[in-house]
Amino acid sequence: MRRAHAKRPIPVALVWALLVLASIAGFALAEGFAAPHVAASVAIVLAAVKIHLVFGQYMELGWAHQPLRSVLAVWLAVVTLILLVGYWSA
Amino acid sequence: MTTLAANAPHLSASPAELPGDSGVWFFIVADMCAFAVFFLVFMVGRAADPALYEASRQMLDLRFGLANTLILLTSGALMAQAARDARRGAFQRARQMMIAALIAGLPFGLSKALEWQAKFAHGLTLTTNEFFTYYFVFTGIHFLHFAIGLVVLIMLQKVAVDDRMPTATRLRWIEAGGAYWHMVDLLWIVLFAMLYLLRAA
Hints:
CATH class of chain B: Mainly Alpha
Shape of chain A: flat
Helix content of chain B: over 70%
Number of strands of chain A: 0
Order of helices and strands of chain B: HHHHHH
Strand content of chain B: under 5%
Oligomer: heterodimer
């Protein structure tokens, strides 16, 4: 059976709640946190966490097809680095 | 709507198998790589002129960005549930979830239209400066993906209950369409952070 030996999927509603919380946290930091560099860096990391959740749970790659999972993990790492390095080099 | 798939019998065969269709995944990866280049170009431009980018960013309404994010995440959750329902053979419920995903996603289009209209009303256009060129081009291309996604969802909710098609084929279509819809989510997650949230010191 497919995914029989794999991790159990997280309930969709819980994933959604985590994504919403992370989005609101990023927004709140950008709006009001006193240290802009910290706020921006945390917002980038939160975005990366959200994308990891979308890959793993919404796209259902968290427990299937290692090659594609690796490709998307590299994409996420590269995009996160682009944002972090680009931000800090300004 | 939470634990339907946890103990469900799965229709596909191998743990190494892709959810959906390999051709669609090829397109998704290629598209995401193209967007990665967009992100790189934007961040290089931002590093070259941070003051311009910060002044322009402050002209954006973060509330629109957040609202758009929440809309897409909610629609994505409903689509994810649809795929889980389909995998356990509940295609009628999967169809309902896809219709819900479609309805939940529609306000993104309205919100984007209102946001762009507000920008145009303030004289901010594609040619205002480099930041707004990227802003309109990137969000415009993303909006095109969103619009295609809506068409995909409309088609999929019909496919879900088309008994003339083999069950495995219907599931593969739903998984592939869902993967595309989630790509629209995740590209927006990056755009939201990059365009709206990177506040300069």
